[in-house]
Design goal:
It contains eight helices and no strands. It has about 260 residues and is mainly α. It has one domain. The termini are far apart.
Length: about 260
Amino acid sequence: MHQHTELQVTRPEERELDSKRRELASLELQLAEAEVELASLRAVLTSFERKYVAEVGLRYAELDELRAQIAERAAARNPGDLRLQDAARRARARAKMTRSTTGPGQAHASAVYSPTPEIKRLYREVARRIHPDLTTDDKDRARRQDLMAEANRAYIAGDQSALTRVFEAYECSPEGVKGDGAGADLVRTIRRISQVKNRLDAIAAEQIALRTSDSQRLRNQFDEAARASRDLFSDLAKRIDSEISAARTELAETADCVAP
């Protein structure tokens, strides 16, 4: 008896799909590691910034406020002295800036934002294509809501590139590919690979920005001092406290000297 062997034919799209799935699996492992590294870097810097504000920043804010009051009293006693008037204005501006970077509102909290025409146009296009009310599918609606929340944050921040990424995230998403079979799966996998690569690029850019930020440079100075067995936080706090004490004394001495 002759046995009939059924030929198994692997189509090109199936071979390509297998290859892309392996590539995707490797990239997703890289992405997981990169996300952890980025989260750790953010956490370390955030912890340092909070410690700096609590132990140094608030002291600087108090010192600059005292210095501003001293300068303003000197200007009030000598209204015709333009040099003292200018010094008072600069001291007050510095005090406001220091307070804004240590207070709950932080810097630029009162800045008035005016979106550019291009930002407005792009936001309208995002809303037209992605708004949650434009779908009846619950899963799609939830995803659209998340993306619109991102779009709103980008619009408020005036971040055109972020708005573009939101638009691309929806228009080029794997979920947007309909149908079954190897061909549709291949397109979905390729789109997912593109998403992961874009996220890896974004993480790399953010890591560079964080590692070259003012906060990181300042942290490096504190770390270098710690390696030399110096507590720079304590040293700075003591020095600023001494300057605050001197400024309070000077301010008290000028309290009764202001011209009526």
